[in-house]
Design brief:
mainly alpha, Hypothetical Protein Yqey, Chain: A, domain1, 2 domains, 7 helices
């Protein structure tokens, strides 16, 4: 499972005294544990872990923007290191060209149908906002 790989990488970061890597991976592990113990009884899958990582990646983007606006280049560079670490655990995302090709092959091009198709078949491997833009013709 993906979380096992993340835990191993976290241990290596601990042994190597790599603070930025350890911080990023520890946050992902913490959020995984929160999801696992939230009482829903649902099994946490690799797709769920990928969603955690994607959400954290977006949060890091916002954090970096704040550091850049405040003129704190060193902290922004640390955020870039963290983003690079977690990006290695994400599944390869479909490119815009691939999404357009799949969209073109769909019979029903109604927005709800398109979104459902991509969510069902490509969850964790596609940026749903990109799918939405393509389906709306933006």
């Amino acid at each position: 499972m993906l979380i096992d790989e993340i835990k191993k990488a976290n241990m290596m970061a601990l042994k190597n005294h790599d603070v930025d890597t350890r911080n990023a991976l520890s946050i992902v592990i913490s959020r995984y544990l929160e999801l696992k113990t939230n009482g829903s009884g649902k099994e946490v899958t690799d797709v769920d872990v990928a969603k955690i990582i994607q959400k954290f990646d977006k949060e890091l983007d916002e954090e970096k923007d704040g550091y850049v606006k405040a003129g704190r280049a060193e902290q922004a560079a640390n955020v870039d290191k963290q983003k690079a670490v977690i990006a290695g655990f994400l599944p390869k995302q479909l490119s815009e060209e691939e999404v357009r090709k799949i969209y073109a092959g769909l019979e029903d091009k109604a927005l709800p149908s398109v979104m459902k198709h991509f969510k069902t078949n490509y969850e964790g491997k596609v940026d749903m906002s990109l799918v939405s833009k393509i389906a709306r013709g933006l």
